[in-house]
Specification:
Elements lengths: L8 H18 L1 H19 L4 H31 L5 H36 L3
Bound molecules: adenosine-5'-triphosphate (ATP).
The site of adenosine-5'-triphosphate (ATP) has 12 residues, from α3 and α4.
Length: 125
């Protein structure tokens, strides 16, 4: 089989950014993740979180958002493959959605561990 010439690196980045833009503008859940990220970043500056805490928050944002991208990709592929209701299609979509949910719950718990003590301290409770 003839080897196809690969796109230049800048084009690959362009496709990746196009994917991010498509998911952020079209997927409701991704918009919610973006709003949550902005709120946490503001809270991070307000409560002067440490560099390690910033790293934890940024890593968890990356994890949740990357999984949301993969979830959208799985949904698109399943819908492309079949329009019928099939158990394997359900498993693929539900498992991908479950992956996002697990990461989002863990991120929310980590966020509470970081921010609740700072909030209580600032309220002098
Ligand atoms: N082809 C299918 N066969 C069987 N079950 C399906 C199929 N397509 C969707 N489902 C079921 O319906 C649910 C919702 O599917 P849908 O494609 O509407 O995702 P969604 O609710 O739009 O997800 P999101 O909110 O993440 O975009 C799936 O999680 C799955 O349980």
């Amino acid at each position: 089989m003839k080897k196809q010439k690969k796109d230049p690196l800048y084009k690959s980045f362009g496709y990746a950014f196009a994917g991010i833009f498509a998911v952020v503008t079209k997927e409701r859940n991704m918009k919610i993740h973006c709003v949550a990220m902005v709120c946490v970043v503001i809270a991070g500056f307000v409560f002067h979180i440490t560099p390690v805490e910033w790293c934890i928050c940024l890593t968890l944002f990356g994890l949740v958002m990357a999984l949301e991208m993969v979830n959208t990709a799985v949904e698109a592929v399943v819908d492309l493959v079949t329009e019928e209701r099939k158990p394997l299609a359900k498993l693929a979509k539900d498992a991908a959605a479950g992956a996002v949910l697990i990461a989002a719950i863990m991120a929310a718990i980590a966020g509470m561990i970081i921010f609740i003590p700072k909030l209580l301290e600032s309220l002098s409770i």
